[in-house]
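User: I'm putting together a small comparison set for a docking exercise, and I want a reference complex before I start. The sequence is below, and the ligand is zinc ion. Could you produce the 3D structure with the ligand included, as structure tokens?
Assistant: Of course. I'll restate your input first, then give the structure tokens for the complex.
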Amino acid sequence: MATERSLLLIADIGGYTNYMSTHRMSLAHAEVNTSRLLERVIDAAPEFDLIEIEGDAAFLSRPAGRMSDDAAVSSTLAVATAMHRAFHIERQYVAKNLCPCKGCAAADNLKLKFVAHIGDVATQTIRQQRKLVGIDVILVHRMLKNAVEIPEYVLLSEELHRLRGDALPVAGQEVLQEVEGIGPTRAYFVDVADLPNSVPPLAAPSVLARLGGTLSVAGAGMPYMLGLRRRRVAG
Ligand SMILES: [Zn+2]
């Protein structure tokens, strides 16, 4: 199977907790809000291909075979910054809608974090659905389970961090991780807030916009409330 050197990036929303699963409307609205946020996040990364939506996370990739070393790092950080910004703009709209349910109220505290790696991946296409396979795909997913203690960060694998040159604006902090099936692995994280242009702009949506947001959430939540669809239980 042919492989291609690729940047692998996962953007993962954090902050929704399991207690919401006790309330059907909260759960429905959390689901709607998550998809709405992920759509904005993905839209902010046009140069990356969306491989898969995985619960509250989006898995993306970009061919990197012809990319210079520091371009691999700088494009990862630039796209993470753009996605983070898009996420928080949309999150503010979600949080300011007038729905009192926990799924909407909790949106105020949602966070976005990233893990990124570079490696050789093979592509499988089954019924027009593109899938990436290989040890590097496994590694980037296992990087989500890490010891980083800040809520919003970009965690670079050692392979990607090694290419940084001058592309990393702040020093990455090292974390060691025992990756299941792979062994001890080193990675480096930077706080998203330390990246240039990362401050989420403060918007004050009008009452009309807030009302519109509330109605669209209520409408989109309908199939869930009627019991026609079920939210996947988040792991
Ligand atoms: Zn709600």
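Residues 69-95 form the longest helix (27 residues). Helices lie at 24-43, 69-95, 102-105, 135-142, 158-161, 207-225.
User: Thanks, that's exactly what I needed.
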